[in-house]
Amino acid sequence: KEERIVVLETENAVLHLKLAEYQGLAGRSANEVLQLYAAHGQQMKFQKSSVVTQLHGAIKKRLKQDLKSLHSLALELSKDFQRQSKTCLYQVLAAVQRIQLQNEAMQKFQIKAFDLEQSLQEVTERYEKEKQKRKALHNSLIELRGNIRVHCRIRPLLPFDDAAGHSQDRQRNFAEKVAYAADDETILVKCSRPGHASVNKTYQFERVYNDLESQDAVFADVAPLLTSLLDGYNVCIMAYGQTGSGKTYTMLGPRLEGNLAFAIEEESELGIIPRATQEVFRLISEKPPGSYWVEVSVVEVYNNEIFDLLAKDSCGKVFGVKRDVVTTREGKSDVPLLTHETVENASEFLHLVNKGLQLRVTHPTLVHAHSSRSHLVVTLTITTVVFGENFGTLWEDEQTSQRLNKEASFTFPQKMRDCKSTSSSRASSPVHLEVTEKIKQVKTRLQLVDLAGSECVGMSGVTGAALRETSFINRSLSALADVLGAIAEQRAHVPYRNSKLTHLLQDSVGGDAKLLVMLCISPGQKYLTESMQSLGFGTRARQVQRGQVKKKNFPVPSKGK
Ligand code: ADP
Ligand code: MG
């Protein structure tokens, strides 16, 4: 046992030693592990720092390169900039020099402009004065002409002028021309009687047209009257002369074959009536839209009776209806119930007039051998609508404005209610205003007259219906002459009512209305007596002078244009 204990103790000691050894070993390896960790950590640190430095180096290198190129670029740029700024500077300098030059020129111009402005002002002042003077002169000229002017048209010799007349005159040459336009104001007539030396007589008118003058030329002298029409004056244009002297040709144009209507298609041949209508519509087109409108009526005065050629029966068929002419409370002439058709343009008007003219041949009560047995009166009524205060601004001269302001009626125009009534018998009293806004309307009239043939005056040896016609024409034409005479002598009473014709024309013949008498003359020897009679009528009408003019005693201007 003891041995055993010793062996075991030895063994135990050995084991203890071994344990101690192993414990030591274990402790050392733990240390080693720690050391290794530390070494690993250091290794890692070291590794990291070396990448950074490498990167750093690379970046640095790169940066250096970039900086270098940037530097060179900047250098380049600044050089470029310098270059450019230099050129700019040169340019600026050049511009400044130019501006200086221009400034100098401008100053010169300014001085010049100032001078011009001053002279312009002077000229404008002078022009204004001249304008006033011209206006005044024009007014006195119009007054001097007495608002009545007489033009004379000689038609060309025509084949039918050859036909022989009275038997005792057979040896004479009927086609011989005896009436000439000596100049554009004088007509010369060779008066010869068998067994007597021929005598040259001359007559002066505002305008004389020779046989070659066109419809255009005739209308050119008529057109200014239409300006007066839109200025607020009534205008009348009438053709006077014997049958066949060119009245209808002058007023309407050449006839259609075998018809009383005229050829609308022949533009250049159109007479005063169609051209005047075109001109009226042209003038209206220059005015504010809607402020003007035009109504037309066509009447015939036959045997001192007035026939409405636009009246329609209940079926809408046109037939001539007898009308009467009356004097209104305002002293104006009016034909109650007369058909007034609204027209919007010249061609509408022409077709309407042609329709009326055709009626003259077909209607039984109007049967007469020739249209020259009646007076044809085409009336254009221009209504001007003005809203409230604008009234005074419509007419340029104050006098007209004031006059029309007095005449204007506060009415509500029918057109406003019934915008396009193609066939409306105008109510004899205007429809009075019922709305809040006041509308004034002024009516001016253009009357275009193709008078009956004047050859009947003093004619004898006719009987029956022809005698009746003749005496009516005689009376109406002498009533016209009387009216013009009364106006000439400034008589208080003008006998308008002596005939339907003058009563109908009252407003566009008297007062401050403008009248143009177109004397139509046949140039042939055959018509010498009638031509002389027409020239006598024209000469008397021309002596008509009005108002203050006579008293002022101005020299009468020789030229009527
Ligand atoms: P009135 O109406 O005076 O009776 P018209 O106008 O009917 O006369 O004219 C008679 C004829 O003379 C018509 O054939 C017409 O064409 C012609 N005539 C009238 N005046 C001229 C003129 N200036 N130029 C050419 N022909 C005309
Ligand atoms: Mg005729």
From TrEMBL:
GO biological process: microtubule-based movement
Coiled-coil annotated residue ranges, if any: 106-140
Record keywords, A-Z: ATP-binding, Coiled coil, Cytoplasm, Cytoskeleton, Motor protein, Nucleotide-binding
Compartments it resides in: Cytoplasm, Cytoskeleton
Protein name, UniProt field: KIF25 protein
Entry-linked Pfam families: Kinesin
Entry-linked InterPro entries: Kinesin-like_fam (IPR027640), Kinesin_motor_dom (IPR001752), Kinesin_motor_dom_sf (IPR036961), P-loop_NTPase (IPR027417)
Annotated GO CC locations: microtubule cytoskeleton
Molecular functions (GO terms): ATP binding; microtubule binding; microtubule motor activity
Binding site for ATP: 241-248
Domain Kinesin motor: 147-544
Family: Belongs to the TRAFAC class myosin-kinesin ATPase superfamily. Kinesin family.
Record organism: Urocynchramus pylzowi
SMART domains: KISc
PROSITE patterns assigned: KINESIN_MOTOR_2 (PS50067)
